[in-house]
Queue: 3 jobs
Job 1
Amino acid sequence: SASDRSNEERLQSELRIELQTGTVAQREHIWGFYQRISSEDLSWTTIERVLQVVARDSDRTRAFGRIAQILTNITGRHELTDSQAANVRRICDELEKPTQVTHITRETVYQSPVREPEIIPDTGKSADILSTLEEQTQIKSSQSEGLQDRFGSLIRRPVIELDPQQVWQAYEADLERNSLSYYYNTARFVRYASTMGHIAGKRILRHIENDLARRNPIFLNALRPNLIQAYAHLDSPEDAQRCYEAADRTGHEERLDWSMCLCLLWSTRHKEAQAMFDKQFVATGRAMPVMFGKIMARYASLANAQAAYALFDTMKRIDSKPIALCLEKLAQACALDLDTDRSSKRLAEVVGFMRSWGRNPDTRFLIGLMHGYNKSHQDDMFDMVASKVDLDNAKPNQLFKFWLVTMNNAVRRGKFTLAQSMATRILADASRGIPKAVHAMCAIGEIGLAKELVGIDSGRFPDNNITANVRLELKLADTTTEPMQLEMFVKKMVSDGFTPSSSLFRELIKTLHMRGDSELALGAFARLTAIGIPSSVETLLYIMHLRLESSNPSSALSTFDDIRERLGSADLSFLQLHAATGDKLVKTLIEYRGIAGALDAFSFLSSLPVLRSKLPYSALIGYCLNHRLWDQAHSMVRHIVQRDIALRPEVANQICHYLTLRSTSSDAVNFLRYIQRMGSLGTMSNETLVSVIYSCIETGRIVDLEWVISALADCGTHLFLWRGLVDCLAPLNTSALLRVIRIVFETSEFKQKTALDFLKSTSGAKYQAVAASMVVRVLREHDQELTFPVLSRAVSHILETYDALYKTPTHTESDSDSILSLPYLVNSLSRFIVPAINSGLNPSMITRALMLLSYGSGGRHEDCLRLLRLIPPAKVDIAFFGAIAQGCARHGLYRGVDAVLEEMRKYHIKPSHKLITTILLGYGRASPPKRNPDQLSEETLASGQNSLQDASTSPTAHIENPSLDSEELPDVAPSTESVAIQRKDGQFTDRASEFHRMILDKMMHIWSEFEYHDQVRPRAAYSIVVQVCISAGEYARAESMFDDMVSRRVPHDEITALQLISLALRQNNIDEALRIFQAIGRKDSGNRHFGLKSVRRNAEHFSLIIEYYLQKSHIDSAMLLLSKMHDLGLAGPPWLYTLVLRHLAKANMKDTFVQTMRQIAQLRVKVDQEMLHTIREYTSQLNEPKLE
């Protein structure tokens, strides 16, 4: 993308600087910049130069750690070529040889299946990763090459072909060599460990963590995202969470967050995963297409069409380009939707979205539909889509997916011959195909054929986790296998380091139950889980069902407690299966224990200190609240409060929220007093506390309000509570907000620190300016000195509010909140800008403050200039004057811009071309006085009496303010509306021409500043002066300005082209206007039209000539030009259509009038009151129904 190229070019520029300077600071700057853009697809040339810079680090440990991190980033996307790998080795050989360290010996994982190694904490001290380099130089080169390639070549082979013992031995050998290849291959080894099953996989990953913690913690930190995903694949979210919390986020924040998001998504915490993705990636603009693809794949596997649609809507909203995986899984989700009408509409929407990116439904998209139609049993649609797949041009992976879904469909529909044929084909990919083929053959009872096809017992493949699970599935399908034989086989698997998959373990328990009885299944479950086999929630639900149906139903309570613990943070409402599971849990508890029994169990469990934080409060209280059992709910809350039982934070928030809504504010505050006694006030959510505070204010409970605010201020953990409170109270009750702030300060001993913390916590709030103004006010009430940190924060709050509300292109002051009006911001800033400047406010903030003060209200330029006198002359910058001039220009205060220019001369500051343009803009925006313009005199203009209209009514009202900070001058020319010919009674007249001539004389005096200071004359300056020339009727001077512009090779743009047309029409030279119009976007017909070739013709160019034709009563010519404009897909402004309809009505051209109204509707032109009045007036003259 363009942004990627831009970042890479910046990095290359920094590398060139480092090559010239060679400083340590520049090297560290390059490393920090690389970390920020490491997620982008950089070229190998750039990466190699970064490796060379990193290798020059005198700290070898840090250098090798950074090299390892770079290689991890690269191999996460693609493999290194042989030449690239050779270059990496050459770069590493240039590093100095490190000192010798002793390796730590340990047992192999397969010789100690029970005892798991202890994770060594990351101390941050890195051992040298090439500590045995001197020993390696003594080994023969051939032996070194053999050792170097053994581990890498093994780990690249298909998983099903790998012998875990051999891989482990190769890993140990590579570890003892301690070469760079160890770090290069460890990431692959982590991915391989995630396929080895829960028991052996976790053990190996922890050994890898131990090795890296001892040898290179830097690389361990770089590898933590891979470890998180590996633990997630092994169904060990607790280890993934541990890695996530232990990681150093510097430089790895995006990869860590994404890995943890995937971990949550692959577990049962889907809602939390989606919230994390929305907050950390979508909201921050870091969401990449591949992320959407993986999340979409998960939703498709869960048959959750609604979640897939929501993710698709997010993609469209942020305009994310879809990848093939995302489109494939989105098609699958659409096909899985049970609402066929919605599915069809969504599918059409998806296809349209694809085509907007230049893509059409391809083979992968059709295969996704086939998967969905197969799972939803829509066989007719499945056959129709399958017939459209182009197998001749399909890629190998696409062929595999097609054969797989066809095999699954054939198995379900009883087409055994087709299923066998497809099973034979998918065996080409052994790692993926063999388990799928065996499962299909077992489903149709072809066990012998399955053994023959895969050759699992022929020694074709070594013993590993995949082959062990395949053998287990074959035994489960073989009805002649005895239950005890199945249990013994699984025990043998575990002793060999292999783990049954969760689905096979659940199938094993069901098989034992069907072939034996519930006691046999329950006993086997207890024995197998005791040796380390993990059990899924679905398996536990089945066990609970068996125990409830057994002779001892009470034994199910322990299983229920286990399930509740697992689902404590799960999203039970996100997936239908999980929602049903949660309902079954609650119903089972109520059915077998009843409400009284459940409350008794709750009271008993709450008495046990170990289980207090794991009690099912939300389930019990939620049941009572949902069934309107208010008495039981109050009884439960009373029971908790009276016994001072510690609550989990989420339960405490739920109860407090319930009391706020259903009870009184006093009850909610009393509950908070209990929370304070338990020392858990810091765990309450900000949203809950804001609702309690607002309830106290609303009900007038001032005593309770003071206690809550004082308690929270003493707690000190709810700094960001004030942000939500400010946004809640500011628009409703500013007096209450001021009282809250006063209470906060009254309870604090260190008021300066409190003020600073309060301002920090409200940073980013919508009403942060209100908070800043009130904090300064309260500090002054307490006779506190306004320190620089407080003043700097307060000024920043007001400026950020101004930027957020008033610096959007489409924003108007009427759109703003009445509280956060410009006068309010200006007055608030005025109260403490002087002490802020005196305390040492930085220049950039001073510039922004001056901009707000001058821009916010007219006539403040003198105050702004007085503020400059508070600053030492040596520190006065041209940006200060530019900010004041922009404010004056906004209001059309030519006296103000003159004062700015005069003040600059006192400081001997040379004005830039941007500042001169801004001064011209101030004159250009000046509007004629409201009093009699015929009496305007030179004295009036010179005196600068402030009788000017608001800038919104001036001819250049929509001129953008030039930025003095940007490198390029923005377009400050008037908009197309401002140069439209004045429309008054059909005549091209301008009653204020005398005023504009006076302004023009002044502007020409300012124009000489360009030549005096040898400054470039920007196109914007020409445009401003030309517009005033046209308004003043000085057409010859306007012509000379254009001649001067093109003579300096300044090309035309859309605005100056519009002014050329306007100038010709003002002189009734329609032929010249048409020549200019036709030259736009086509060719440069002479020097006068220099640059028109690159100008794009827009609706305003059409509108100007159409208006001229209408004023001259050439309606046919006007309608012909209007039709051509519509053919180009352009829509004119509303005033143009009002004028057209008015002339059509006057000429009584009924058919054309109606046709024009249809075009207005088709183009969705905004119908204003003037247009509506014209339509009604004309239709009222006809003897037909109104055309409304």
Job 2
Amino acid sequence: MAELKCPGCPKKFQNNRSYANHKRSRKCKAKIKAVAALRLDLRTQNIQSKQKRRLETAEEELAQEQEQHMQIELDHDEPPVIIQPTPLVRPSGRPYRRIRKPIRYRDEPPPEPMALNPIADILSEPVQPPDVLTPHIANLEACPPPIPAQQFRTLPDNYGMYRVYAHGRPLFTPDESYTLSDVSDSPNLAVNNSSSSRQWFSPWGSSLENLEESIKTSCAPFPNISIFRLISWYYNASIMKSHGELNKLVCDVILADDFDRDHFIGFNAAKESKRMDDYLEAQSCVTNQSSSSPFSAKDGWIEASVFISVPSEAPKFEVKGLYYRRPLEVIKAAFSEPGAEKFHTTPFKSYWKPSPEESEERIYFESYTADVFHNEFDKIHVQLPPGKPEPVIAAIMSYSDSTHLTNFGNASLWPIYLYIGNQSKYARAKPTSFAAHHLAYVPKLGDDIQEFYLKTFGKLATAAMLTHLRRELLQAVWLLLLDDEFIHAYIHGLEMELFKELMSLLFPRFITHSADYPEKIMMACLKYLANCPFRLFARDLCDRKRLMRIDNEHQQFDIETVRKWLFVDGKSLSSVSVDRVLGAKSLVPTRNAFSQRLFKHGFNFYQLFVPDLMHEFELGVWKAVFIHLLRLAYAHGGDTILEINARYRQVPTFGRDTIRKFTNNVSGLKKLAARDFEDLLQCAIPVFEGLFPRAGLPTIESFGGFFSSLLHGTASQNSYETKDLPCEETARVRRQAAQIKKATSMPSKKRALTKDPPNAKKKSTRRNFNLTTYKLHSLGGYVRSIRDHGTTDGTSSQTGELEHRRVKRFYPRVQKGKHVKGIAKQVQRERLLHTLNERNKVPLKNSKTPATSEADEVLPATSPDVHHHISEEVRHKVSLAQWLGKNEDDPALKDFLPRLKDHLLSRLLGHEYDGDETEFTPAQRATVIISNNNIYRHHVMRVNYTTYDLRREQDSINPRTHPDVKVLSGETEENNTDPHPYWYARVIEIFHARVLHVGPLSRSSQPQRVEFLFVRWFGRDLDHRAGWKAKHLHRVGFVAEDQNPFGFLDPLQVVRGIHLIPAYAHGRTSAALGPSKIARPFALTQEDWRCYYVAMFVDRDILMRFRGGGVGHKSTREATNFFKNDRDKLDVERRGLAHQTGEDSVATDNAAGESEEHDANEDAEMDGDEEDDALPEQQELEDSDEEDEEMADVEDDDEEEEEEEEEEEEDGIGGDDDGEERDGQMDEREALGYSAL
């Protein structure tokens, strides 16, 4: 054995034991440590010198690579290198990928409204005279000359938006309390509970000395705060308990800091409900209470009766059971609520000037930016005496429609809702904002009217007489609502102290009335299904404007003349004399309540009625077109119908609720809501492609041509023999059977006075597309309506249909038979609780937005000011060595690790462009160290974006359900002969890794969290003509395997998620990629669709990103300006003519304000089984409107239910839009999702 020498002394040892004992001695222990440290230092220096030489070599190579690959990026003086285009379609039909890098995308949140800065430009131009909307009114007093005033213009924000106030600087604007939460619509965004400037303790002063007593007062009439929270949860919760409702009970009630179980000793729910009723009744009796009190109940419900006249000088018939509230008191209560601080009391015109070189354009988005609001405000300013307070218009937007309360039975309600147009449409459309004020519940004409008629005249009332009496009833209710107090405020104003001690003069003004067609006809006192209901059969827009209806004395004289014939002379409603006087104008012998009360004050009630996107287009025009397409499919024969159903089933979903999963049998038309028909329209082009070779439906162009052929009858009459659908035929038979059953069940005396029951119709031999419908001809009125009243999502009846769910939710809680009174009480209680909650909103520990679990991954709410959000969890760890070894034969993972390090190194070096195209040397890749050689998988990535109308929204990217994204391409006309602003990719995996960058170019010595997406690229099909000018959807397909189809993407590059619909007519293929479990993790086959269509109509924001000109698309404006030149010739000529005539550009008007999704979507879920009121005149034109009549019964499977709905239809009350219950949050998002395009 060799001798062991001590490094601290000259001693030598023969064995290890003696040497170890020696080292532990005090004499040599210190010397041995010093020698060991010296040796370690020498070794460390040696290693560092070798590493330095290696890194210097890598730095030299990296500098050379950067000089070669980034010369164009660093040197801006050199012209760009023009890459010659290569064919994107291989011989197999698969597209190639254009190998370039996506450009940097910078997300920007919506701007803050500009403050009313006194240094803003003051325009000394006098105010122009207001447009008089009723020039033909003979007794309208001439307005004096306008008072010169100065216009106030705000400074433009960073998006180029500014406002112009016509009458100087306003005294109040709600933008003072603006936060980003006010424009954040996604439910997964972290928002503040309230951005109101009013503190929760403000009703009791700023002092907190009596805080305990204040809190006790704040929960009045309840004895303690715990009971108050429980009752609030009960009234705000759904009757169908869910996990979410249970979580709210635990978080908001049980876990509240002030919760005390002793508070519930002796608790009784009925007693607490009676306590609320007694409190409201006591408050209504207080006469000296301040008008600004949040608990005033002067606007409580009143039970009354109305009397309607019966022809032939008979005594008036009393209709009992009317419950109503005084409109003026409702308006005062609305302006006293906490949410009123967000009301815009002064109208303004909004303009957009994106750059100094471009001209400014006016933007329409709210009712208080539209012309009718401005005209009314100008009239008030002109006639207002000096010394009066600041005038404020209380814009009234009413809605009325009857609704069924149950799926079975005949319980129904006919409510009238009142909305305040000063409130933003985004808040007004949400049911949870309590923007709907229930004004009245109209009673029905029951069977007692027939008994009265039989007793008085000895015969039953005819169908025409019943229809007339229903019109009289509705107008009598409105005549009662428009009382003297309201008329006085309408003329002279109402002095009222608004928020922040602002004394104002409140003028109520009716702006719009929303309803479906039957209700609208009853309100307008026009004949149902007449030849010219709204004079919209004009040849062009000029005729539409010239022939608009005007309420005048001549029309009133004709109506009074006919009423004298009916009520004095005893003539019949169906007499030739009546039709000769009123038939030409489609009038009816009913006095309009608005005409009686407001005509002499210059009000034209016809201006109230606006086109309704939901009922008139989605459930009208498009539904009729879709049904006729199904008829064509049946006429075409074969398996066309089965193919349509199969294609719709395979359409992928998009967004939270934008495009939902279609039913298995779309052609059956069972239980389809308005949102379902909207989805069917958005996905129709790829579905119907190639199904009708004779009519031709492969593209947008041929789809539009086919629709034109429908309008002219060529496709239906010359190519196919279209007949009723099976469901239409079945519905007709069941309806006729119900009529026969009803007729035969009458008493013998009544049966003798009625006509014989109709015989069953024979099966129709032909069914053509019907052109003579009001809904089709009203399409020309949308543009003017947007300018006059604001965008259609603010005037759509969808908002009122969503409010129907509130009364339906209360019906199971009230006494049957007296449900109208019970619902009125429930609504009043809920309003009281809502006001208390808003006034007492105190931040609690448990009030934070809870984290949501998506795909077993906890992801908290996302801040709205960040671009994207990926979970911080590290549970789903992926070992690169094991994962790559297990899938070494998968083509998707070919060169995965080198390409990943190239991507990471490019980002760590801060290159201008990100992507996987730059290849580094092995030495350069060695500077990137992935911690523990592990990456971490995530299931969801949320991407925030600013919408075209300056709202904050969010997309959820999920590789399993919503994997497709788009990024900016960087293609321009200089570097590409056929540029396109976007590239598309499918996200296969979402990863993050802990990465350490070493070497002299490292910017940090600490490991960094780097997030990246593993994607499969799409390539554009250049052989396919696409775009607005070509009238084709853009078509893409997966990049071929030999063209680098896989890569990595920085999440910051993602602009938005995108909806790609397979091109079903082109089939599937496996030529692009061989078998791959990584690329197709959820596919049932190892084939891909040959190509996909880019669904640019999926929501309003994506549509504007493919059109250009979106106000909120500042980050992509330069790239999407390309679309401004991609216009059809007719569109260019029309826009040029509009500018020459001084009109605003309609396309630009829609750019910032119109809403089409939706998202908000939001969204309503109204049933498509809504049935228009079957007034008796409907029988005159039954063949012309059979679609609406027959499809009313198609949605219901139960025969008894359909018979009951037929009875409701015969009553002449609007049909029900009752649909299946959905999550309330989705409802609100859908409510924001409708548009005015």
Job 3
Amino acid sequence: MPPPDKFEPLLKRLKTSADSKSAADGLARAVKTNGLTSLADREVLTTITDLLKNKNAAGAVGIASLATVLGPVVLPLVLPSLPVLIQLYDEKADAVRTAAQAAVKAVVGLTPVEAFQTVFQVFVDELKGHTKWQGKVGCLKEIARFVDLRGQEGKDEVASILGTILPPIEATLHDTKSDVSAQAVKTVTTLCLALPNPDLLPHIDILVEAMRAPTTVPATIKALSNTTFVTEVTAPSLAVLVPILTRALNDRSMEVQRRTVVIVENVCKLVRDPVIAAQYLSPLLSAVEKIMTGASFPEVRAFAESSHKTLVSAGASLDIVQPPPRDMEKETDEAELEVMPLLPEALAVPSPNDETAPRTPFTPMFAQTMRYSARLVAELVFRNALIEADDERWVRCFGVFVGGWMPDGRAAAKDLAHKARSHFLAIEEAKKAPTIVADATEDVLVNTVFSLAYGALLLLSHTTLRLVRGRRYGICASNGSGKSTLLRAIVDGKVENFPSQDEVRAVMVEHALQGEDGSSSIIDFVAADKALSKVPRPKIREQLLEVGFDDERQSQSVSSLSGGWKMKLELARAMLYKADLLLLDEPTNHLDVASVKWLVDYLVSQDNVTCLIVSHDSGFLDNVTTDIIHYESKKLVYYPGPLRAFVDKVPSAKSYYTLAATSVRFSFPPPGSLMGVRSNTRAILKLSKCTFTYPSRKDPSLIDVSCALSLSSRVGIIGPNGAGKSTLIKLLTGETAPQEGTVYKHPALRVGYVSQHATHHIEQHLEKTAIAYIQWRFQAGHDKEVLEKVTRVLTEEDKKMMEKEWVGKTGEKRKVEMIMGRAKLKKTYQYEIKWRNMEHKHNSWIPRDDLLAKGFTKLVQQFDDLESSREGAGSKETNGPAVRKHLEEVGLDGDIAQYNEMSGLSGGQKMKVVIAAALWNNPQVVVLDEVTNFLDREAVGGVAVAIREWGGAVCIISHNMEFVNALCPEIWNVEAGRLTHQGKAAIVEDAFLEAKDKAKPASRLASRKASPAMTPAGSAAATPAGSDVESGKATPNSVIKKKKMTRNQMKAKEERKRLRLLHWLTVGGPKPDSDSEPEI
């Protein structure tokens, strides 16, 4: 290696020798040996810069050698030479041109991806100010090369700033020099391929062509109109689309305008960030308004109006004020001020005149390095790249530039980068410090900064999770915000910097058992848990006893447990784990009042266990929580105190307390009419003396139960866990059949059933979207789920019944093949029977009573279910827009319904899908089994308002007494298998009381709409089941209408009248009434 006094010969050789490459490499090695200060002390950089200004190839060779030998540390010093190097692209001498191109490649190759915009600005300035085509082509090539060199990381960086960098490059597409425009097409294509939207990637070529040649815009719009957009549309995609859509909206063709406004609407629906929508979509608003008011075709105006509404709802506005551009100089000054104190004294020297003044770089050249690195630091802070996983980015943006000036450069680079990142992280945490009340005596269990995403959807961004031992945190946010996802990420170890399970034992308590068919006994089920293999069986027994499982219940199978008892079993298992952090996801679901109180008492008593709770039960949260964590703008914000204290501070969260204070509006479809039901209080669904026992249990779950529902019923079913509430509902809806007693159901009745386990309905269809599920279920014009009920599936006995011969009036023997149709017959129905091995012309119409008497009950009920479902759903279209609108009416976001698979939906979103499916065929009765368990308070309020305004019967099982008491004047209390009635029951009237019916409409459904708060009058009977209407006995007040007489009967009456008059004339006595008939 040459000593310091050899710099001068090397510089001389660089200026005069033909072999400038070896001289430049020698100089670079000498600088590397003697330190970067020699660049200034020995005037190395000055000499190379002077050569460049004189258009000497040696200058470009010197820059290339410095970049190659010294590496990234020299980048801030050689970057200012980039414009001069680009100027050399125009030189006629091949040596100069080649050296300049090699130098530019070397410099660009050192640039980190975070500095792409800085380098790009140099190229853009040259594109605008350069007059010769060679330089323009060179700039365009280097931009494309930068993206290609960095791979996916480079594409992500380009995508994030595409809206800024694309417009100036787009201008070169129209350059008159073909070489420039051809390279511009390649460069723009490379940039657009960085788009993170897979829906647009197949159309990149035609999009670029539309930018180059406006005449191709109609063809581009036609291609885009045949594209189904399903991926979230972000800023990069809008940066490409909006200019093209703007041109298309101003096209004269009505067809192009129509297609464009439809594309605008579809794209807007996928823009989830209102800030991005306001920034990019607002320019489209005026053009859409012009079409909405001025298009000659009504169809185009209608599409434009719909598109305009979507634009406004997405956040676009004509009055939008675009945010001011970032003040990079100010941000750089602030970053430099913060990092200077972190440098060693050898690099940052104090002011000789003022000890309190900030330290300054020790040389002008190092000051240039600090300015460049401070700019990159400001960029990292702006992007919130402050967690430990970002250390590598801090090394390449700050550490390598500053560490290269120190003897142990590589180690110093890592140390300085870590210090800088930690320093700015502390600054960010300090900004949020007021939201967390710290205490010196607190035992902090977890304190980390992290981000959380679900697929491509960012749920939380660089937020702090801080948990103190012994405190109980309630998480509040709307459905779909990611509450359960956060708990699952913690237990799966996917939260950045979260302590390991060895340090903090985190246990998840959720509804994992719901819907399982466990055949093992309860104690065996717990003992089989591998995590509890070292726990002795007596300890397991004691824990089960503590949560209410006596020895008899411990021996029962898991499948026999109700939802509430299954949750208790999960809690017992969690307690055996001895958790430091208990993660509870809707723990009160399916728990009765006594069990909820027990859970509150238990959690409050655990001084050393931290709880993170997701629950929609406001009373439970208020009683158990010490702090509330609220999702706000993708951040976790902490509020000390229980729920009521949080509501005082955040009035907009009042819906967590009051059902009426909801901004969510559900809309239930009106119920269909029922044949023969002219009164809202006639029994349409009834149990009479029913007893039911599960196969795996000795004792019956329901004993001698009698009850009924009418169209005006609002029934709340309450009782402790395992009392038989869900079993009662299953009997009413036909899910199961009683061993004793009878179940009456109006033949045309449609029942919408929402199970307490939402996956009960959709567990076989999780790969479908919500819209696809409803289309599958009702595509045949009826509800496929109805035919899958246990009570409607033909058993072997039923199949044998089908072999039973039917003897006709002529003595001919026939066998029933199937029921083909149904028609009204007086007050009941008759059915068209297709006989086996006989043609359709021999079909017969058989009265319902005759079929039931012959034992064809299940066949008749199966056909009744099919027909009633077809009557409700058959008239509805199952196209995408219709189903989407229906799902939106029950509170599910339309885009989620259309594009997201149900496997990725939250519990509340799945519940909304099930509610929508239950209401699709316009049922007259809706049965909601624990529907509030997975809905947030806003949605529960929306359901309550919808039920109050609905015109059909409602039956509700819920431990949420606030919900039940607000809606249900009639209460069925189920305890120990027996049913008792409380409150007001709807009166069951005869459906055919002509005297009353003449004074009121044929149906009172319309009147219920007018008066949703109508309360049925009190009944002398304790329950509608006490009525004899269905048995055919007339009530004391019934009026029997006389039938119209036939002609022969009228002749006979006239003859009797004549004979009475003749008898009076002959015998005498009181004169007979000519219109009265004597009693017989």
